[in-house]
Amino acid sequence: MVLPDTTEDTQGSGLASVNPDLASERLTASFCVPRLTAVLDGGAERTRLRRAVVDVIESDPVFSRENQYFQSQNERYEAAVRKAVHVRKKMQEMGWSEDGPESVYIYRALSGDVAFLLHRVFMRSISVLGSDKQVAKWIPPATEYQLIGSYAQTELGHGTYLQGLETTAVFDISTQEFILNTPTISAMKWWPGDMGRSATHTVVFAQLYIHGKCYGVHPFIVQIRSRQDHSLCPGVIAGDIGPKMNFEHIDNGYLMLKNVRIPRENMLNKFCEVQPDGTYIRRGSQKINYFTMTSVRISLISDEVILPLMKACTIAIRYSVVRRQSKLKPGEEEAKILDYQTQQEKLLPQLAAAYAFHFINNYLHELFNRGYREIQGRNFDSLPELHAFSSGFKAMVTQYCTSGLEICLRACGGHGYSLLSGLPSLYTKILASCIYEGENTILLLQTARFLIKCFTAASAGQPVPPSVTYLAAMKPGKCPAKDKLDFLSPDIYTEAYQHAAIRLISSTAAKLQDLIQSGVERHEAWNQCTVQLVQAAKAHCHYITVKNFVETVEKLENTAGIQNIMKHLCDLFALHGIFSNAGIFLHDGYITGAQMDMVTASYLDLLGIIRKDAVPLVDAFDFTDKNLNSALGSYDGQVYQRLYDWARKAPTNKQISPAYEKYLKPLLHNKLSKL
Ligand SMILES: CCCCCCCCCCCCCCCC(=O)SCCNC(=O)CCNC(=O)[C@H](O)C(C)(C)COP(=O)(O)OP(=O)(O)OC[C@H]1O[C@@H](n2cnc3c(N)ncnc32)[C@H](O)[C@@H]1OP(=O)(O)O
Ligand SMILES: Cc1cc2nc3c(=O)[nH]c(=O)nc-3n(C[C@H](O)[C@H](O)[C@H](O)COP(=O)(O)OP(=O)(O)OC[C@H]3O[C@@H](n4cnc5c(N)ncnc54)[C@H](O)[C@@H]3O)c2cc1C
Q1: Gap from CA of 154 to ligand 2 centroid (Å)
Q2: In DSSP terms, which residues pair with 236 in a beta bridge?
Q3: Atom 33 in ligand 2: residue holding the nearest Cα
Q4: Cα-to-centroid distance, 146 and ligand 2 (Å)
Q5: CATH 2.40.110.10 is the classification of domain 132-283
Q6: C-alpha torsion angle, residues 395, 396, 401, 404 (rounded to 10)
Q7: Cα separation of 189 and 198, whole Å?
Q8: ipTM over cut 0.95
Q9: Domain locations in the chain?
Q10: 154 annotated as a binding-site residue
Q11: Rounded CA gap, 78 and 62, in Å?
């Protein structure tokens, strides 16, 4: 390759021309790319609005992420705060409101690289758990950033087991205050974002004591820093927890409280209240104080999990059509790496999953909005289902997307490992989503608990929520597929998924029952079933995702090739799941070995079909170069030039190595003198 004589920065500006290897991929799209973008956005008008927001954000240098890969933790934090403050100014300038449609797009345009995410969770807690009076008191100043909030639940000793939290809030009837304390080192709050260096307030989860009786964990609004000079409030010890795998831009913090007094009104009391005489009142579900988590688990799926996978697919697929390595056919030019079947098998299922999860996210939001409306009206009937779904899908989608992202990174070979590819940061960030807001195994076990209950109820002919009525519909029989084309029939594969989910749930329920009947204590029997329970919960979520993808495709417009290509992706997603979890489907002979060969054949055929549309399918995600921030994934495919230009910007290339004077020079000179 001839090196152009350029010293210009190529980021975002786009080099003169699109790499012909990438350009040619766009000429043969089987569908209309802008139409698909509009489908993903929920309409062309939303696409227009999103792009307008992105334009505003990206044309402002304060929001630039150009030097991000070369910044220290301190610099990342400061930049994130600067951006958060500047966003406010920008929103005022543009007349955008916090609850307006633009907010979603702002966050997407900033790639989450902004401070005060937990401030939003703080506000969400108050909105969902606070009384009207508390909402009126706290939300306006929080919206105006007259205070900055955080969400302090996890402690050094406990993150998962919330009943084990040790922070105490003792009601002092004489002063009408709660006294908050961190009684032990393990009770120290540890991890809350925005708390280490920014927050003035936080929602603290603590064990409520009234007259010496413990009422369990409740949320309290506590001021931790002065709003005037930001000094720590009396009795408060707080700081930053130090370096992490990612999230350098967020000041995850620690917090200790020593006899910190807050007024009675600071306990969030829409559902639970302590009256002046110390009477405790609860309205509704015992688990309602966990509702912020339910809501955030659903809120985070799109921006924190699906978008990163979409970006990774965009980067890896664009790169895979400009990267040529080895020869497919002797005597011909080197092949695009995406033409190797193994490369297709790495990347295209991830692409299909990104679409599948985009659609399941829409489904989850509908489910949540319906449930939330009911809960606001003090009807808690849908809470168990909402909890089971938000837990299971948070776990399944984060796990799948994290694995998918790692596959994309590795599929880019050595260049994928460079921070400049954008993939390592996406990976180390998304990995945290498998842990925060509930560690995934724990969440799947919550889903399994719900499924086992529903299975037992359904088997006894009792009513169960609509999403799990299928548990009562175990049909005897085998997969009817006769040839590989049958496996492109949604009915065939959806039934297979349904069968697998019911089998795993019912066999685990039976094992649990057998153990208990044989005298094993319930908790021990449960523990002996947990590996299979996790498997069953995953199978349930996988089934619902496939089913929802099928239903979504059926409803899509059948013009402009959209429905056709989405059907291929849906088939691919479904068959990839069967192909890579073959044991589950073969186990009871529902699918035979011969049928598994048919699955494999159809699955591999689909790779070749979707390969042709791979670039248009990632183009439809509509990420700008600035948003991708990847030397490998830009729209123009000028990968090598961009990698070189960006590497030259590294501070290490802009100074003489201090190690030369200190170590290398004496070393080399010493050796020289002996020559
Ligand atoms: C806001 C704007 C968007 C912002 C978007 C930006 C996002 C930006 C992200 C980047 C930043 C990262 C931010 C990370 C922020 C943290 O990570 S915050 C900390 C999150 N922590 C967790 O998730 C803790 C996980 N642990 C738990 O949720 C619960 O303790 C457990 C594990 C579910 C079990 O709790 P438990 O009290 O021991 O309950 P247990 O005795 O097992 O009883 C279970 C019963 O309670 C029920 N239950 C448990 N939980 C619930 C629930 N939530 N609801 C209803 N029922 C429940 C069960 O169904 C079960 O019912 P039954 O079967 O008995 O009827
Ligand atoms: C980037 C990041 C940001 C965070 N932000 C916040 C925040 O803003 N506010 C906040 O309060 N917290 C926050 N957290 C904390 C986070 O929510 C917890 O770390 C998370 O809920 C997991 O809990 P844990 O650390 O106690 O894990 P543990 O429960 O200790 O998990 C360790 C292992 O034990 C297993 N395990 C534990 N219990 C069981 C069980 N009953 N059955 C089977 N296996 C079990 C788990 O499956 C896991 O394999 C954050 C964490 C991270 C990484």
Answers
A1: 8
A2: 257
A3: 439
A4: 31
A5: yes
A6: 130
A7: 15
A8: yes
A9: 132-283
A10: yes
A11: 12
